[in-house]
Each structure stands twice: as structure tokens, then as C-alpha cells.
Amino acid sequence: MNMKLGICNDHAGVEYKFAIIKHLQERGIEVKNFGTDTTDSMDYTDVAHPLASAVESGELEKGIALCGTGNGMAMSLNHHKGIRAGLAWSKEIGALVKQHNNANVLVMPARFISLETALEIVDTWLDEEFAGGRHERRIAKIPFEG
Ligand code: RB5
After folding, report:
1. Distance, CA 21 to ligand 1 centroid (Å)?
2. Closest Cα to atom 6, ligand 1: which residue?
3. Which of 12, 28, 99, 102 has the highest CB neighbour count under 10 A?
4. 100 is catalytic
5. 36 φ, ψ to 5°?
6. What is the pLDDT of residues 104-143, one digit of tens each?
7. Average pLDDT, the chain
8. What is the DSSP letter of 20?
9. What's this model's pTM, rounded to 2 decimal places?
10. Catalytic residue among 11, 23, 49, 100
11. pLDDT digits (tens, 9 = 90+) for 28-46
12. What's the CA gap between 136 and 91, in Å, rounded?
């Protein structure tokens, strides 16, 4: 069965979003678009939470989120217990965010990386495997009960 992936973006990530959707579709991945399709200013929270809920519910396997710095998206997504949103700005971090953190949502800072780098990060994150072992123990400790 084809992988189903969600993508969300604010106005800072529109251009990269369309290029990433095309790239994912070329890889045979089904993509649900939660983001804005215009460059009109909007609040990243309004698209981050619906994407997170769709991944948490199992409707979608994974997600990708884009905003200017990546931080607004990461902060919003990580409020969801079933989400591990990891910020990546290089191919190497794209690999580690899967190998060590098993991020189920990849977040990228659209205003600070090239489109070429963004596409490389997407491929690396998708193709790498979670390393498990000590990293399994660590990610299990992330949800904070207080
Ligand atoms: C939008 O100007 C910008 O604040 C947003 O894309 C993001 O960087 C927030 O964290």
C-alpha cells in the first residue's frame, strides 16, 4: 500500500510546499495538503494542529511542516502527544532526526535553506531507518506527565 503523508505550511513555505508535493508524488507517495496555498500572512498553528491530529489518529503515516524558521510549526506540533516533530536544516540532520529521534513529522525552515537542500532532507528522512536501542528508550521518555 502506498504511503500517505500530510504536509502543512504557512505563507513562508508555500513555494517549497508545492515543490515537495511534486517530489513526493513522483516517489509514489500520496500527499494530503493542509497548508495555505497563498503567500497571504496566516498563523502556522491553524494548519499545524489539523496535520498533527491526522497523524495521531493514524489517517496519515507521517507529516512534513514548513514555516519561516520551522520553530512555530515544531512548537505547535509537539504539543500533540503522538507527534515527534523534528527540525532539520541539513541532509545530515535529516538522517539523524529519523535514526535517533524517529520523527513522525519533519519540520524545515523554508526561509533559511535552499529548495535543493529541502528536497534532500525529505529523501534522507524518508529513506533512513530508526536505529532503536538506546534511542527507543530515550524517545519513550519524551512525553512529560509533570
Ligand atoms: C512568519 O513570518 C514566521 O513567523 C513563521 O513562518 C515562522 O518562522 C514562525 O515560527
Report:
1. 21
2. 68
3. 12
4. yes
5. -75, 150
6. 999 999 999 999 999 999 999 999 999 999 999 999 999 9
7. 97
8. H
9. 0.98
10. 100
11. 999 999 999 999 999 999 9
12. 22
